[in-house]
Amino acid sequence: MHFFVFLPFLASLVLVLLADHRDPQHINHEIDDSEFCTYDGRIGHCEAILDCKREIPKKELFQRRHACSHVAYRETICCEMTGSIDYPGRIVGGDDTAPWEYPWMAALLTKSSNKRPFCGGSLISPVHVLTAAHCAKHILPDPTSFRVRIGEHNFDSELETDYRNFRVQNVSIHPNYTSSYTIKDDLAILELNASCMDKPRTVCLPEVPNDFRNHEAVVIGWGVTEAGKNQPPILQEVTVEVYPQVKCEEAYENFKITDSHLCAGIQENGGKDSCQGDSGGPLHVKLKGRWVQVGIVSFGIGCAEALHPGVYTNVSSYLSWIADVLDPYTLNDELCGESLEQDPKMFEDCPNGAVSSRSLIQALLPSLTIPILLFSISSSFLPSLAT
Ligand SMILES: *[C@@H]1O[C@H](CO)[C@@H](O)[C@H](O)[C@H]1NC(C)=O
Ligand SMILES: *[C@@H]1O[C@H](CO)[C@@H](O)[C@H](O)[C@H]1NC(C)=O
Ligand SMILES: *[C@@H]1O[C@H](CO)[C@@H](O)[C@H](O)[C@H]1NC(C)=O
Ligand SMILES: *[C@@H]1O[C@H](CO)[C@@H](O)[C@H](O)[C@H]1NC(C)=O
C-alpha cells in the first residue's frame, strides 16, 4: 500500500523539480505539503469543493480527508494542477540525429535567448509550423519577441547546417485547448514570415485519420537528456512504440485520456529507456519511406518511467482543423517526409539578416563538445532508426 502511494509521490516530486524553469508562473513556486494532496500523491491545491471546477472521481472524494482539511465550515478538496505544470519534454536514451535527417524540425526561440529552444515544432507547409498549444501560449501575447529557427542541427556549431530564423506572423491555438485538470487539444500552428522558402522540406501528416497503435515511432527534440542536465546542442532522436489506447488510459487514469491523445513509450523492460521529446516536437512513423507525423509532444509524468509513457496530441484527430488553418496551403507536398543526406538548399532565396549570431570568430572556433550523458538504449531499437 505504502509502496503505491510513495511511487506517484516521487513522480510528482520529480515533476515539480523539473517544472519548466522558463515558465514565469513557476518561478519561485513554493512547494508545500498541500500541493501533493491527490489521493495518489500528485500535485494539487486544497480548495473549496465548489471552487474546484472539475469532475471529482469517487475514490478521491472518499479519500479527501487524508489530504485536505476542512477550512472553516467549507469542505475542501484536492484540486489537481496538472495543466498548470509545463512538462519539460526530454529525450532519454536517445541518439544524435544526422544533419538534415529531419529537415522539418523547428526550434522555438526567444529573441533574447537563442542558444537552446524552449519548445520544438515541425514545418508542415512553406510557412506553417505545427507545435503544442502550451508552447504557443507563451508566444501569443508578444509574437515579436520570438523566433522560429528552421534548419538547425547543432546549436553549438555554426557551420554544420544552414539555418534561418523567422518571425511569427500569426498564432492559431486550437480553440478547445484546455490545460486545467487534463490537457487536451494541445496543438497550435505558427505562421512564419517565410515567403522565401521555395523548396521547403515539410513533414507528411496522415492522409486520412488513422490508428497508429503498435507502430514504431521516432520522437526528436533538443530537450534535456537527463534530469538536472543541460539541454544537448545536437538534435536527439529516440524510437518508441505507440501504445494501444487502453494502455494509455490506464497509465493516466485521472487525465481523461481520449482518442485525441496518443501514448508512446517502451512497454517492456520496465521502460527504462522510454522517453519524451521536446514539447511541441514531432513523433513520426515511417510509411512507404516517408516520415508521417502522428503525434505532437504534449505531456507526461516524469520520463523514462515504465508506468508513464509520453502523451502526445493525436494528429489524426485534427486533420481538418489543421487543413483549415493552412488554407490556401495544402498538406503533404510531394517532397514531404524525406530524410536527406545533404543540405536541401531550401533557403537559397531567404534573406540572411536574421542570422545575426553568426560571427566569424564563432565560426572559426571548434564547436564546444559537451558530453551528453545518455541512458542506455536497448540495442533492439537501434537498427530501426532511419539513417
Ligand atoms: C491568423 O490565423 C487565423 C486562422 O487561424 C485567421 O483567421 C486570421 O485571419 C489570421 N490573421 C492574420 C493577421 O493573418
Ligand atoms: C470544440 O468543441 C466543441 C464542443 O465540443 C465542438 O463542437 C467543436 O467542433 C470543437 N472545435 C473544434 C475546432 O474542434
Ligand atoms: C488517433 O486518432 C485516430 C482518428 O481519430 C484514431 O483512429 C486512433 O485510434 C487514435 N489513436 C491512435 C493511437 O492512433
Ligand atoms: C523574417 O523575419 C526575420 C526576422 O525579423 C527577418 O530577418 C527576415 O528577413 C524575414 N524574412 C522574410 C522572408 O520576410
* List of distinct ligands in this structure: 2-acetamido-2-deoxy-beta-D-glucopyranose
CATH superfamily of the domain at 95-326: Trypsin-like serine proteases
- Mean pLDDT equals 72
What is the global morphology?
globular
Percentage of β-strand residues: 15-25%
Distance between the termini: 46 Å
The neighbouring-strand order within the major sheet is 8-7-4-5-6-10-9
Query: Rg, please?
Result: 21 Å
Q: What is the CATH architecture term of the domain at 95-326?
A: Beta Barrel
> Which consecutive residue ranges, at least 5 long each, have pLDDT under 50?
1-36, 69-74, 81-90, 270-277, 354-387
As for the CATH topology of the domain at 95-326, it is: Thrombin, subunit H
Count the E strands: 16
Helix content: 10-25%
**Count of discrete alpha- or pi-helical segments spanning 4 or more residues:** 6
The computed structural class is alpha+beta
Largest sheet, in brief, is:
7 strands, antiparallel
Structural topology:
Blueprint: H1 2-18, E1 44-48, H2 58-67, E2 76-80, E3 95-96, E4 105-110, E5 119-123, E6 128-131, H3 133-139, E7 146-150, E8 164-166, E9 168-173, E10 188-192, E11 216-221, E12 236-242, H4 245-251, E13 261-265, E14 282-287, E15 290-299, E16 310-314, H5 319-326, H6 360-364
Antiparallel strand pairs: 1-2, 3-12, 4-5, 4-7, 5-6, 6-10, 7-8, 9-10, 11-12, 11-14, 12-13, 13-16, 14-15, 15-16
The chain binds 2-acetamido-2-deoxy-beta-D-glucopyranose (NAG) (4 copies).
The site of one 2-acetamido-2-deoxy-beta-D-glucopyranose has 11 residues, from loops.
